[in-house]
UniProtKB/TrEMBL annotation:
Domain GP-PDE, first and last residues per copy: 212-466
Molecular-function GO term, any one: glycerophosphodiester phosphodiesterase activity
Residue stretches spanning the membrane: 42-63, 87-106, 111-130, 150-172, 179-197, 479-498
This protein's GO CC annotations: plasma membrane
Database matches in InterPro entries: GP_PDE_dom, PLC-like_Pdiesterase_TIM-brl
Protein name: Glycerophosphodiester phosphodiesterase domain containing 5a
Protein family membership: Belongs to the glycerophosphoryl diester phosphodiesterase family.
PANTHER family in alphabetical order: GLYCEROPHOSPHODIESTER PHOSPHODIESTERASE DOMAIN-CONTAINING 5A, GLYCEROPHOSPHORYL DIESTER PHOSPHODIESTERASE
Subcellular location: Membrane
Amino acid sequence: MVKHQPLQVYEKQVFVSFVTGIYGCRWKRYQRSQDDSSRWECTWFIILCSSFLLLLFWAYFWVVAQNDFNEFNWLVYNRSGEWRDETIPILASTTVGFSYISFLLVKCLQLLSIGVLATLLSTISGLVSVDDIWRDEWDIMLVSLQSTAPFLHIGALAMVTALSWLVAGYVIRNFQMMVLLIYIIILLAVCLAPLTFSCPCIIDRHNLKPRPDVIGRRGAPMLAPENTLVSFNRALQHGVSSLEADITISLDGVPFLMRDRTLRRTTDVSKVFPARQFDDASFFSWTEIRSLNAGQWFLESDPYWTVKTLTAKDQSRIGNQTVCSLVEMLRLAARANSSALLNICRPPPEHPRYRSWFMDTLWAVQKAGISQKRVTWTPDSDRGRVRGLQQTTNEKLSMKEIRQRGITSLTLHYSKASHKDIQEYLANNVSVTVYPVNEPWLYSILWCSGVPSVSSDAPQVLRKVPYPIWLMSQNAYNFIWITSDLVSLAIVIGIFGFQKWRMSGIQNYNPEQIMLSAVARRSSRDINIMKEKLILSELNNGLSSTEELSLYPENSYARHSHGGLSN
């Protein structure tokens, strides 16, 4: 009598065998004793996939948030009191975690579960921290989709198409129609996603507006200390049309350039006036402020990793910089035939110049000799006292409010300037300046939206963008969209058909016929290849014994017991 008993299935998985050999010193071919995964394996697979998707979101966020790294470091400084590039450890840990999870996901291994959990928990912790410190930055995700949505659609379509191989095998083997329905819904959602896209750069070339002017925000702070003369000179060298600065009023009424509330970050006040280093910058006299060094901090901290690119002469010049006054900055703008945008910080109520800050600023403008029509300032207050000067507001207002207040220009954060709003403002002759714009992708979508000017910390970067990074007509995009959807659907249908044919072949497979065929050709070399093991069993009554022989090819299952066979 010959019995057939179910044997373990040996699957040819070269990469999996290699990885298990490295991690577990097990170099035999990978084997499974059962078809169905345990609940524990399924749970870990779900955790692994969740970690991958969360890290994918986290990595994408930091890629697009690169536009605002300067703002992030400044926010962290205001909390910690220490100025350093906090994005480096975040980017490094994100890269390591994403690479690790991607490796495990591709190999479909639930190895090193502690590492998976650690990566997942650290990512969640990072999300919570960013939401606490930098909550407004989440808006950049939606803004970035105006540039990346068409490309993300192609990537998502490829991923869902590739997933059809696993779904088809699972559905056909287990007859899980609910899984099939969910997959079809997801596939259709991805195929029709472009209907919801709003991409300014999907326009005809002849509708593209002129290149937006670039305003040097605090000069060129990535190349020289912010709000210093050398920084503004660098910005002018890189072709900016205007200069933007932050204005504070000193104790004796001299407007000077300073972004922070204190002088600690950008001067050596901790050495010159250690007892007053945490005092408000406006409570120093101009003589005291002028005695401080405003450039050495940049050389020592190298906040943008650019000091090594500077010549010895440039470093010497930066190291001798002092705090810049408003008059000096406006005179430089006048000589360069440029305009100026001033963000004025009003002194606190207990300041002696609290009521005269406006006249102090106006006096500095007149002393600089620049045309008042080329000077714009915020906040939008004391409009009745302003004659000849341009005023703008940082608030997003309706057209009704704009007309009531007589405003002709807006300075908006990019997260508040949607494509629809920009078109409405421009149609009503309201000029729009968007800030901060430091990355080519953001500059490109604002260019396609028709924005007249942008304020940037990186004019040297935007100078290298002579044209939007991508531009496509609506007809061209529709062709790409529909073609990619049709190709994806054809591949998915083909995969399901192939998997059904493949599974039906396995189900109709008769191992007894294979065994008899192998016995009939016992002398052939194929017998040695097909033979997996010889099982000798002894009958319970001890009267006789039989030779149990199970012969089958690789990747097949002996599912049933069969009757006797005579030799």
